[in-house]
Amino acid sequence: MKYKFEDLVDILKRLRAEDGCPWDRAQDTHTLLPYLVEESSEFIDAALDEDKAHMCEELGDVLLQVVFHSQVCKESGDFNIDDVVQGICEKMVRRHPHVFGDAHVDTASDVSRRWEKIKAQEATHRNDANKSVMDKVSKSMPTLARTQDIIRRVAKVGFDWGESGPVFDKAQEEFNEFRAEMGKISPEDANIDHLEEEFGDIMFSLVNVARHCGFNADVALRRANAKFDKRFREVERLAQGEGKPLKDIGLEGLQKLWKKAKSNLEYESLE
């Protein structure tokens, strides 16, 4: 059977009916939130792996969450999936006058500037002009993503260096401050509070470095995690081939295996 979007809406309606599924009927917008985060993360994993089949599957799971939330809200008289679709369609048309109107743009940067200008006009129309830029930063976002959003939003209102040099200098300054705090560690005082604060400043500044370089810090860290994961699995494979438990190899031996694992994987990528 070939299903359509409307069929998914009907399936959720059926699951939530009195004679539907007890689990689905028991859910509300709060209990569903973890699943929305989980499914979004699983799609990101599939996209980073360039696994097209799983990307399709995980997008379906994300879409399910959108329809599920909409059905719950429909039952409480707040809005329905048609309102969700109507709202996003109106927004996309309104914010792309160069496509759906007679406005003209030449570059992607022009589009971004016009987008922000239209958003500002919408905020004024909603009497949002006196609200803080920080109000738009979601408190429930993962920490690294929230840092990126904070930096992005304040940059839009001019709180940003126009060139990358000072951004790198700031990151170096934060490293120096962290090292200075490390120098204050003593047997009587581990200085954890100040170290943690300065380390946080380092991470915040590095996210800004990433933004100025034109890439996403979260994606970069995900790639680093994936690279480490792959290399350490190779270390485990090599150790197993030598018949040695990892804990018995020692740091020096593990570092040698790490170099060999790195070399093996680099060679494989060239084949």
What does this structure look like?
There is one protein chain. The chain is mainly α and 271 residues long. The chain folds into three domains: 5-94, MazG-like (Helix Hairpins); 132-215, Helix Hairpins; 219-270. Helices cover 72% and strands 0% of the residues. It contains twelve helices and no strands. It has helices at residues 5-15, 22-26, 29-48, 52-75, 81-94, 97-100, 108-125, 143-156, 165-182, 192-213, 217-241, 250-270. The model has no long low-confidence stretch (mean pLDDT 91).
Number of domains: 3
Q: Which architecture name of the largest domain does CATH use?
A: Orthogonal Bundle
Q: Which structural class fits the helix and strand makeup? A: mainly alpha
CATH fold field value of the largest domain: Helix Hairpins
Q: What integer value in Å does the Rg equal?
A: 25 Å
How would you describe this structure in keywords?
12 helices, single chain, 3 domains, 0% strand, Helix Hairpins
Brief sketch in words of this structure:
The protein is mainly α. It has helices at 5-15, 22-26, 29-48, 52-75, 81-94, 97-100, 108-125, 143-156, 165-182, 192-213, 217-241, 250-270.
Q: What's the arrangement of secondary structure elements?
A:
Layout (H helix, E strand, L loop, with lengths): L4 H11 L6 H5 L2 H20 L3 H24 L5 H14 L2 H4 L7 H18 L17 H14 L8 H18 L9 H22 L3 H25 L8 H21 L1
Helix pairs in contact: 1-4, 3-4, 8-10, 9-10, 11-12
